[in-house]
Amino acid sequence: MAIRIVHIDAFTEAPFAGNPAGVCFLTELREEAWMQQIAFEMNLSETAFLVRQEDGFSLRWFTPTTEVDLCGHGTLASAHALWDSAELGQGEQARFYTRSGLLTAEQRDGLVWLDFPALSETQAEAPAELLAGLGIDSRPRYVGRFGDEYLIELDGEEQVRQVQPDFAALRKLPGSAVVVSGLCTSGRFDFVSRCFAPWMGVDEDPVTGSVHCCLGPFWGKRLGKQKLLAYQASARGGVIHIALRGERVGLGGHAVTVVRGELVV
Questions:
Q1: Separation of alpha carbons 74 and 162, rounded Å
Q2: Which is nearest to 180 in space by CA: 201, 202, 200, 158?
Q3: Is 41 labeled as catalytic in the residue annotation?
Q4: Which CATH architecture has domain 3-105+253-263?
């Protein structure tokens, strides 16, 4: 039996921008090795796998090389796919059971809003080899860690855009992902960021919802704001709306369906 799969660009209003995700509709959970093979075949930063449950959906996310615990754009794409295919009615809340607990998505104010856990960072020292691998030759304004990921604050937007990592060098170091971020100077956004995860098969992630669970509280504290607008300055680019809610973070964005198809394996 053919399995429905769609390709959706998340955190963008236009196709061929934002972060592409595959969303695979399953009637029952498949073995991890099979899902990993599909994610490798799709070769997108993440492919999401949905299985309907009594009061929601089981949701798992895979990069081309590994399963991940939390994925913002894959969740946004999954919610969009459910509404777009009429698996859920317009305005109906999407409920996802994941390795990070229950996550929800709602349509509000013209956006899809995700309810995610807030993540806090602690100050840390970035290894010299990591900074060298990122091509950063000046002392960062701040370095923090959340989980096994680094957050590096640079002097501003231009410095973030100019980062040119040596991915071969980074792969030789331990890690999972590193985020560089700085205040926005162009006026529209509060801050910009870029996210690199060559250890997980994604050299530069186009738009990373999950890291904004940390970036939101980080910049919210510095700017004294509960609502922020962020831009991820990858080649594809993407816009993330952020609403701080104590131990939770709201992540808002748009999504566009690009391809509808079937797996025939």
A1: 27
A2: 158
A3: no
A4: Roll (3.10)
Q: What is the pTM of this model?
A: 0.96
User: Would you tell me which CATH number, out of the four given (3.10.20.740, 3.30.260.10, 1.10.10.10, 3.10.310.10), belongs to the domain 122-246?
Assistant: 3.10.310.10
Q: Can you give the pLDDT at residue 185?
A: 84
Distance CA 143, CA 33 (A): 36
Phi first, then psi, for residue 13 (nearest 5°) are -95, -10
Catalytic site residue from 13, 41, 46, 204: 46
**Spatial CA neighbour of 21 closest among 34, 37, 7:** 7
At 193 the pLDDT is: 98
Q: Exposure of 243 by Cβ count < 10 A (0-12 exposed, 13-18 middle, 19+ buried)?
A: middle
Q: What is the mean pLDDT of the chain?
A: 96
Burial letters for 52-68: b for 16+ Cβ neighbours within 10 Å, e otherwise?
Answer: eeeebbebbbbbbeebb
